[in-house]
Design goal:
Layout lengths: L7 H4 L3 E12 L2 E13 L4 E5 L6 H8 L7 E9 L2 E2 L5 H7 L4 E4 L3 H4 L6 H10 L6 H14 L5 H4 L9 H13 L5 E5 L7 H18 L2 E6 L2 H7 L2 E6 L2 E7 H6 L4 H8 L40 H5 L5 E4 L2 E3 L8
Parallel strand pairs: 3-8, 3-9, 6-7, 7-8
Antiparallel strand pairs: 1-2, 1-4, 4-5, 9-10, 10-12, 11-12
Helix pairs in contact: 5-6, 5-8, 6-8
Length: about 325
Amino acid sequence: MSSGAQTPSADGYLLGVEDLKVSFRTEDGVVRAVDGVSFGIKPGEVVAIVGESGSGKSVTSLAVMRLLPPQAAIQGDIEFEGQKLTRATDEEVRGLRGKSMAMIFQEPMTALNPVMRIGDQVAEAVLAHDRIGRREAWKRSVEALHTVAIPDPERRARDYPHQLSGGQRQRVMIAMAVVNRPQLLIADEPTTALDVTVQAQILDLLAELRQNFGLAMLFISHDLAVVSRVADRVAVMYAGQIVETGRAQEVFHQPLHPYTRGLMNSVPTLRTDRTRPLRTIEGTVPVASSLPAGCAFEPRCELRIRQCAEQRPELMEKSAGRWVRCPVVKLS
């Protein structure tokens, strides 16, 4: 792969995404939501995609799960365990979705059915893939609620979503995702609507599930602090493209792309001078239907040169495993 990921069959990747492009036709023209994204996830590995709202990270995760609406035009390859998902039939994908690969969605209150007991909702995920009776499915549902540390799971399984707190509803969503012991878990902003204390509990839970079940994870977030706790590798997205990728510690401690540096500088730390305002990235994110001819970040970039406005940069390997979409930056 030209952008830093290799094919799953060649290098032991569980999931491989190669030159993924997703576009939508709208009244304002064609919106390129994802434009040439490539990455791979090995078994047991956590890869995080970071970016602002509208960067294309959630669309990428929905494309992997084949959950995009019919009007979405998809190009590129998505390969899971050697199977080309972009060429698989709907029936083949349904056999994988919820069984070998599962997803936690952003808003648990809207993702859960408000008129079904939570135990029945978790049991549905079991019945969709295993030919067992409802009593056995209910038993596995309660076991899954216990696994995600829902207190008194036998009783809470009979509750409805509105009877649970936000953190408990998120745990139910995680129980639904892991009840069939998937190999890959996609977590799309799993802590966004939660307070800081509950966020930490959910992150600890995901780390425990990863260790106990050997889960690989695609973690989608805009929160750099959260990502720094969970990810082995990080891909930073801007305007539908990955602009920097590498091992998490390297990206956070030595960001290379001007956009990544801007994100890092805008996050307060214990050393931040509280008497001065936080640094911000000047300008706004470009409209997806009318991206600049050159680098999408060029209008906001302090390091831009003439080439940036005229030529779209390619991802370049700056060091082993470090890829950056910028011709200006150098390793210090």
